[in-house]
Amino acid sequence: MKIDKTPLQGLFLVESSSIADPRGVFMRCFCQSELSEAMGTKQIVQSNFSRTESVGAVRGLHYQTAPYSEVKLVRCLRGRVWDVAVDLRKGSPTFLHWHAAELSSENGRMFVIPEGFAHGFQVLEPASELLYLHTQYYQPTHEAGIRFDEPRLAIAWPNPPSDLSNRDNSHAWLDLDFQGIEV
Q1: Catalytic residue, candidates 68, 97, 132, 142
Q2: What pLDDT is attached to residue 176?
Q3: Is residue 180 one of the residues assigned to a domain?
Q4: Could you please report the per-residue DSSP string of 37-85?
Q5: Under 8 Å between Cβ of 167 and 61
Q6: Is residue 174 domain-resident?
Q7: In a domain, 16, yes or no
Q8: Is the pTM of this model over 0.85?
């Protein structure tokens, strides 16, 4: 695994090498010891899967608040997505900055998204599938989100956003006095 830092402190892009032969492909998707720089001592406690059918569909931007903030590892198993992480950490030098990368089944990339970040993605190929690994259990009372089209973020989605859930469309705009979240 090759672990690359991004411009946002704590956000890593991991590239996994694959071994191919006539039978197919083998790739290590997770290794606690190799990912310790990105995850510290946090342990994976939950995994989730999503498939999104339509190109242009946006899911997000989601996060969990303290004390259930989580590190999230996101990998594309099928298709292609444009994956976005937004720094919401109170006092961070990159507060409200975002970073995006294309994740695909072909490139084998994975985002390691730290606590205090919102996450979302846009589908670039039909029926794209993602696997998420989490260091916290899902807590409905601590789930939160911000709008995909929040003007203070000015995320440059590659395609016109479409096919949003009612939940994602109902996220509030950030208050002008929003100072970030504690992690």
Answers
A1: 132
A2: 86
A3: no
A4: HHHTT----EEEEEEE-STTBEEEEEEE-TTS---EEEEEEESEEEEEE
A5: no
A6: no
A7: yes
A8: yes
Q: Answer yes or no: 132 catalytic.
A: yes
Which residues have CB under 8 Å from 145's CB, separation 6+?
A: 60, 61, 62, 63, 118, 167, 168, 171
Q: Is 119 a catalytic residue?
A: no
CA distance 87 to 177: 16
Q: Give the pLDDT of residue 18.
A: 86
The one catalytic residue in 62, 68, 97, 142 is: 62
Residue 179 included in any domain: no
Provide the pLDDT for residue 164: 96
Residues of the chain with pLDDT under 50: none
- Give the domain CATH number at 127: 2.60.120.10
Domain that holds residue 91: 2-169
